[in-house]
Amino acid sequence: MTTPLFGTDGIRGLANEEPMTAMTALKVALAAGNHFRNEDRRHVAVIGKDTRLSGYMLEPALAAGLISVGIDVVLVGPLPTPAIAMLTRSMRADLGIMISASHNPYQDNGIKLFGPDGYKLSDAVEAAIAAMVQEGRPPALAAPDALGRARRLDDAQGRYIEFVKNSFPRGLRLDGLKVVIDCAHGAAYKVAPTVLWELGAEVVPIGVQPDGFNINRDSGAVHVDTLTKQVVAHDADLGIALDGDADRVIMVDEHGAVVDGDQIMGLVASSWADDGRLKGGGLVATVMSNLGLERHLDTLGLKLVRTRVGDRYVVEEMRRSGFNVGGEQSGHIILSDYTTTGDGLIAALQFLAVVIQSERPASAVARVFTPLPQVLKSVRFARNGKAPLDHAAVQATIADAERRLGTRGRLVIRKSGTEPVIRVMAEGEDGAMVGSIVDEIAAAIARAVG
Question: Which residues are catalytic?
């Protein structure tokens, strides 16, 4: 059986091992180029990347594949994933490609594809591209006089900076606000501090010295301890933590308390509802979002629609049902009035707008609901190994946990679409029982793996 090429967020793996090799990147570009080359005209693809060393390997491979099928390539260098989505649509390009493994360490890398509308590709389009790659179908190569060309877009950063600034409410400024911004040594290391400074903030930038190896290392949205300490040390008003490709954000208030994606979504949705801007009568989140968020929205007469894990599935539901706020607890926040994918900077600015308009500190506005006790653990298994969820002992442990939780909580167990891990999440009103349940299931999975 062929291993799926695409996961929940594009193609991802260990750099210079399949599928993250130059050869496979070339094949993906050939296949994607063939798929999107559908008219007798010049076609254009935008390629961006984060700051991983392996980006230097994958970028030219992708460019060569596209050029060989007659597609012109625009190279923009290190920029956030949402910038690539924006530029693809803004430049009327046929395809956008982001080289990034998001929050993963530098050893990993990934390829994310965007269509001409700036949205991530559908499952059907990904399947068509994957089939061409994995079945070895020969691509339709361009004639010598029809090869594509490559060029660099010198003002790409400036375009994105202005795009993000235009999402901030007109007439508001960040004057007098001290903000610590942690860019995780990733794709936003230049643009994020610039946006905040140009809007008037006093900026303390950290995680802005990428060296090819330190992306996400002890920094950013998945390692918030660094930010919390810096916010307190600098007596800042709040902190912003982005991940390696800046499509997710976690906030920190002036006391160093963490504000996750659920709280950010709850705050934005309630604020927009008060202003008459909220569409769909609520927001879209995944099965991982806290039950406390759902209960809070219910008290406001708003609804929460859940999807499977993955911001692309959140976006699909938002488009299908007419919502303009959605996201994930992990910090992917999609505000479709502005963006087609998660944008950590734009979400952070909406949070800042509420803080400024309320004339209260971040701690007074950030905790919009009391979360139920929730515990999440990840169990790693061999990359090429079989997930052990069908093991009899594991299934028995899960069944017992569901019985104990009953209607007072939730249990979500899933194989990650981006890493070789199984994630076990439980939440409920009894914190001790929730912790015990997760420990027992994780231990059963570990035994099955071991």
Answer: 102
